[in-house]
Design a protein that fits this description.
heterodimer, A: alpha/beta, 12 strands, B: elongated
Chain lengths: 326, 280
């Protein structure tokens, strides 16, 4: 009997209105279009996909920072969007977030101590000044920063150090889940590995579960146990990281994997998703047919007429393709 | 954004000049509370309309009052008007502007259309309307000037708040469980404070000018309370015989406005280097 999932996402949909043409019908684009996923406690899930695939929107929905148009996000079985605002705010101590841009995610007007302690303001407002300072010092040590960092301002730190500060802040309430949205992609390549290793160390020592979002396959393979590949707001393939990358079943996953010259290195160059034309064929995103068909080298007649559903292709693995693994 | 240091201020001549003038005037206003060469209400008909001399440095007016004493006491009035009028504009304007930015939607529309409406009237003309309606007097003049400072600060704080609200640290604060009211106080206001201080300095100069204008028209401070604007008005009759009656209060007004404008511009350059580059 497997443990109940930490997070379960069901049929999640989030649409954004497109700029309307004059007198035209208001059109929407679905950034997240019917996503289902579960994360077991202690097992980290990586989400990969090109920019515009809906990864970041999914992250904000899981964090309940945005309301979905349909579907639910459950955290430890509780539907986050059914909670009254007060209870949701108290619940937030269990799931925290690390953002992509370490220059934008820390308030430039606050000292590091206040930044790191901010989640405690809501989670544990009864703490004394002293107790807060101790907790901050403990977290700064855990992420490898010296104690005197607490009295300094964010602009005095490098990108990697700032991301450590962001991590200390995310960890201070001892959350079960950390949603990390491209946490290393804004960093120098040499610093990326340090921060990734820190993330993994913290996972071991503190038992946190990551929802780890990245366009960089090498990074995801390094951190995640399971991987979900997103394309146009949908999950097109899902499975254990090692299997999925060694034998991709969906042609889109394969295209992503083949575009990476060397998975064992953190070389940022060349690890971006293939430069296939993602925007040119928005019109082709009709109701019927596989959304990837216009870009798929193996597309057949059925691919243009019938949308493939995400189905199990092997134990623990699923793909949304009529001809998986071909 | 870092807070400027004293050394950085002194490297900028305009800012240094503005700060010096403003500080000097502030000191004069403070000194006038305890000391002026003569009591500014003392009349001495035998000494009327004296040109500047050793006894009366800036001469005397048609009642024999000492001009320097009146100017010193008048600076108090100008500062009081500036502080209160800008305070009204800042307090109400920032509250409205940030609320509009945070709430958006209909609240935003209503607040901003009201601001547009108020803004559409020339400020001094509207101040004249308000004082004509409420009756002349220093307090009503201050209220009138204050009201027309509200849309200035409402717009500025809304625009700057929107910019701050789009930053990731706002999302991070929400993820930490903070509500929007708390986020506004803890994150938005500190991040727009610099811009607001700059604008407040510039509005201060405008308030002094507006008060002088109202007083000149007889709608502001009433006699015997001293006011630069009213001194100009009274000087009019004696312009040809005793031009210093007009020159000195005129110069005082010009100096105060110049000082605050230089200070405001200098502070803006210091706080926002991007703006400086764009201008040069």
């Amino acid at each position: 009997m497997p443990a109940p999932p930490l997070v379960s996402v069901e049929n999640l949909v989030r649409r954004y209105p497109l700029p309307a043409a004059p007198f035209g019908r208001r059109r929407h684009v679905a950034a997240v279009d019917g996503v289902n996923l579960t994360i077991a406690p202690g097992r980290s899930l990586g989400i990969v996909g090109e920019s515009g695939s809906g990864k970041s929107t999914l992250a904000r929905l899981v964090m309940a920072l945005e309301r979905p148009d349909a579907g639910t996000v459950r955290f430890r079985g509780t539907d986050l969007f059914a909670l009254p605002p007060d209870e949701l705010r108290r619940m937030r101590r269990g799931f925290q977030m690390v953002f992509q841009d370490p220059y934008g995610s820390l308030d430039p007007r606050q000292r590091v101590e206040r930044i790191v302690a901010e989640p405690l303001d809501v989670a544990e407002p009864q703490l004394t000044r002293r107790e807060r300072a101790d907790r901050v010092a403990e977290m700064l040590a855990a992420v490898g920063l010296s104690a005197d960092a607490a009295t300094r301002y964010p602009h005095e730190f490098s990108g990697g150090q700032r991301q450590r500060i962001a991590l200390a802040r995310a960890l201070i309430t001892a959350p079960d889940l950390i949603v990390a949205d491209e946490p290393v992609s804004a960093l120098d390549v040499s610093v990326q590995a340090q921060v990734l290793n820190l993330l993994m160390d913290l996972q071991e020592t503190r038992g946190v579960t990551y929802l780890f979002i990245s366009h960089n396959l090498a990074v995801v393979e390094h951190v995640a146990d399971d991987v979900a590949v997103m394309y146009r707001g949908r999950i097109v393939e899902q499975g254990p990281a090692a299997e999925l990358f060694s034998a991709p079943a969906h042609p889109y996953t394969r295209a992503l994997v083949e575009a990476v010259p060397d998975l064992s290195s953190f070389d940022g160059a060349g690890s971006h998703p293939p430069a296939t034309d993602a925007d040119a064929d928005v019109e082709a995103d009709s109701e019927s047919g596989c959304p990837f068909a216009p870009r798929c080298p193996r597309a057949r007649a059925v691919c243009r007429s019938e949308r493939p559903r995400l189905r199990e292709i092997a134990p623990g693995r699923a793909a949304a393709c009529h001809f998986p693994g071909e | 954004m870092k807070f400027p240091r004293a050394a950085a201020i002194m490297q900028r001549p305009a800012l240094a000049a503005g700060a010096t003038i403003t500080l000097l005037l502030a000191m004069v206003a403070l000194v006038s509370l305890v000391w002026t060469p003569y009591p500014y209400t003392d009349m001495n008909i035998a000494m009327r309309l004296q040109p500047p001399s050793a006894r009366h440095w800036l001469g005397t007016d048609q009642f024999g009052r000492d001009i320097l004493s009146m100017l010193m006491a008048g600076s108090r009035n100008s500062f009081a008007v500036g502080f209160v009028a800008v305070g009204i504009g800042l307090g109400i304007g920032v509250a409205l502007g940030t609320t509009a930015a945070v709430r958006g939607g209909i609240v935003d529309d209503v607040v901003m259309r009201l601001a547009d409406f108020t803004f559409a009237f020339p400020a001094v003309l509207s101040a004249i309307m308000i004082t004509a309606w409420l009756g002349p007097g220093a307090v009503n003049a201050i209220i009138a000037i204050g009201i027309f400072n509200i849309p200035v600060f409402a717009r500025l704080s809304r625009g700057s708040a929107l910019q701050v609200l789009s930053r990731d640290f706002i999302l991070a604060a929400r993820a930490a469980g903070k509500g929007m009211a708390r986020i506004t106080v803890e994150h938005v206001l500190p991040n727009i404070a610099g811009i607001l201080v700059v604008q407040a300095t510039i509005q201060f100069a405008l308030a002094i000018l507006a008060e002088a204008g109202l007083a000149y028209l007889g709608l502001g401070t009433q006699p015997p309370n001293p006011s630069w604007g009213r001194m100009l008005n009274e000087a009019q009759t004696f312009m040809h015989r005793s031009p210093w009656l007009a020159i000195f209060p005129g110069a005082a007004i010009a100096l105060a406005v110049l000082g605050f404008n230089l200070l405001g511009d200098g502070l803006r350059d210091l706080i926002d280097p991007k703006l400086r580059r764009a201008r040069s």
